[in-house]
Amino acid sequence: MKPKVSICIPAYKQINYLRKTLESISTQKYNNYEIIITDDSPDESVKNLLKKFNFSDKLKYFHNKTRLGSPENWNEAIRRASGEYIKILHHDDWFKGSDSLSKFVKMLELNPESDFAFSASEAMNSEKKFLFIHSVSKYQLKLLKKDPAILFFKNFIGAPSTTIYRKTINLEYDKKIKWLVDVDMYIRILKNNKTFIYHQDPLIQITADGTHQVTQEVRKDEALQIRENLYLYDKIQNNTSLISKILFLFTFLKYPSFLDFQKKIKYKLNDMPIELYIMMIIKKIKLKITEKIKRVFSSKKKSFNISYSQCGEDIIVEYIFKQLRIERLSYLDLGAHHPIYLNNTYLFYKNGSTGVCVEPDLVLFNYFKKKRNRDVCLNVGVGFTETDDNSDFYVMSEKSLNTFSKKEAERFVKNEGQKIESVIKIPLISVNQIISENFDRKPNFISIDIEGLDFDVLRSFDFEKYRPEVFCIETLTFVKNSGEQKLNNIIDLMKNKDYFVYADTYINTIFVDINSWNNRKND
């Protein structure tokens, strides 16, 4: 009897990751599956690992005599599969829960008109610690149904491990490409049948920062990326919408070498779409304008300080650290909101410092990843205890008021004319755990603005173990009829922990560790 699902694992060494993958399969409640492993490894490390698992006749192992590479090793696993459904599971990804596979199968079983289904996912770092949730908005799903080529602009489906499809579609990954290989496959599948199913809960956990991954290898290869974009555009340009074509063309503006890519990637100008000539002209104009602006501003002596904070708090904090003789500080930004606008840490990021930014709003978090790529960005909430798990997060019409506090959200609605746009479940991590997992000792600077929960977080903070030199904390709340109230409980707590008020901008209060300030070196 043929299995319903073929779990296809294209393996290449990395047995520590593969072990986690196999463990997640062994816990699945749904058991009508086979495991196909095609091994590209030059040794027997994968084969030896499999001896530690008892999948009996469900496991089929094939060692490639010659290394096939990506994505041909993926195709080899698919060719060997006998199941009705193909479930690609890369060796560094794994099922999140014991019911993940059954939910994948259920999507296709309950929707026979669909050939393709996918789910949200949780991104994990190389140490298997949570980074963020990758999910798809309703608007993105609408665009995808209208024209799958929209994936050209942004692959919001995600990694192949988040997908499952019927084997009858009879498609393989294009071995001519590596960077856009998954996007190409998704577009071809959905061009044949635009009906798909999406599961909003994360069913898969993805390793997002493994340096061994093909994605990481080609990320720095700009020439390869440009070649593959042109190759894929050539495949789909006669069968896609105008908006998708336009979005594709704008992707080229991000490549610094786009203007000389003929020489860089050996692409014949006669083969270039006419639209790209237009984009080259746009980019030339953009560069000239940018250079002229830079010359104008560089010729003028800088006689002012630029602040990105709400009331100049970052400039005050910068001065404090100059007095403390700390040039490159580390920071923890809790309730970071926006990567630049009204942000207390962007000035330091701009000057070369790095830190951790915590933002539970997924839209804002994705913007953080884009604008603050040197920082560690966490799509989580801040809990008060080590046992906190998940909590409701209230997304407000004014995003700066997003909060985990139901009481605060209802107050914003009643007194400030705000609306609750959505309520979503977000994982919680205590502030002490965030510090222990992301800093060698402690952050130098902590900014806290988490709408109504600042005091609770501070009460849970381990001041005995961690002594940041500076805190910037929102100490003003708004009450009925637009009145204002100073949160003296926060100020009293910080004073009891041997921090003094260095400055107060009315909205925020800046606290400095007394011992650090008294021990500063004066010239």
Automatic annotation (TrEMBL):
Keywords of the record: Transferase
Gene Ontology molecular functions: hexosyltransferase activity
Organism: Candidatus Nomurabacteria bacterium GW2011_GWB1_37_5
UniProt-listed Gene3D superfamilies: Spore Coat Polysaccharide Biosynthesis Protein SpsA, Chain A (3.90.550.10), Vaccinia Virus protein VP39 (3.40.50.150)
Protein name: Glycosyl transferase family 2
Record SUPFAM superfamilies: Nucleotide-diphospho-sugar transferases (SSF53448), S-adenosyl-L-methionine-dependent methyltransferases (SSF53335)
Keyword field contains Transferase: yes
A UniProt-annotated Pfam family: Glycos_transf_2
The Methyltransferase FkbM domain, residue ranges: 333-499
Domain named Glycosyltransferase 2-like: residues: 6-169
PANTHER family: GLYCOSYLTRANSFERASE, UDP-GLCNAC:BETAGAL BETA-1,3-N-ACETYLGLUCOSAMINYLTRANSFERASE-LIKE PROTEIN 1
